[in-house]
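BUG: 3D viewer hangs when loading the predicted structure for this chain

Environment: internal workstation, default settings.
Expected: structure renders.
Actual: progress bar stalls at 90%.

Input used:
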Amino acid sequence: MNTQSSTNPITPEIRERLFAFQGNEISEYHIYSHLAQHTRAPHNRQVLEKIAADELRHYQVWRGYSGQDISPHRFKIWKYTLISRLFGLTFGIKLMEGGEGGAQKNYRLIEGILPEASRLAAEEKEHENALISLLDEELLRYVGSIVLGLNDALVELTGALAGFTLALQNTRLIALTGGITGIAAALSMAASEYLSTRSDVSSSATRTPIRAAIYTGIAYIVTVLTLILPYLLFANFYLCLAITLALAVLIIALFNYYTAIAMDQPFRRRFLEMTGLSLGVATLSFLIGFLFRTLLGVEV
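Structure tokens produced before the viewer hung:
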């Protein structure tokens, strides 16, 4: 292949882009290979192996033009492999899909210079379609149950803790009361989700009642423990309430970021909606606590 022909001149700028393409392709080859090795589903493994092979072939095409080997980005390989193991294959490959979209745009910048760029850009688009077909993880099938547990815990417990903070004004007592209230509500919510899933004929083929209840209960309890933690660590109950509300917003942000990536759901609208509900209920409950404490003259 004549990389220095007059029809396809390889300028220093183009060569630098080729090196960037090579580094990206060889890194993604290793990432997809690692993901394939740790994927149990045969279909998912086959698709990931095919994509890995395509990435290696793309690397070799760009090497034919640049005439130089490029080492993979070790941190990128480690990063996406770890993300996929911690948060699921779907989340990991959706993040990778965003990188694939960037590759398509970069390839199109040199379509008029190198004839291979147009074909490789089309293949990168096929990668996205193949990745989307992998979205069949258990975690995503039970996202509705997780949302139920998270949302209910955030709304109810932030409100309850805000009310308890002003009414009780004792961090240990607030943590005890909030913990008992939260765990009792978690068990109740898990039982309700079990009965709801069991009676829902449309979801019986993809979701089991027991697992739906477990996901809801765990999401609720983890949220409860996170929100009452400041009351176990600090003595100033107003500071504890401020930290708890900040933690609630952080939980909402992290979960909505996850669903935005893994399930292509809008982040901003859902984040603002859940945050508004949680903080709104907390504010109202705080005022109710103040009202009851004033009217009843209770001192703890």
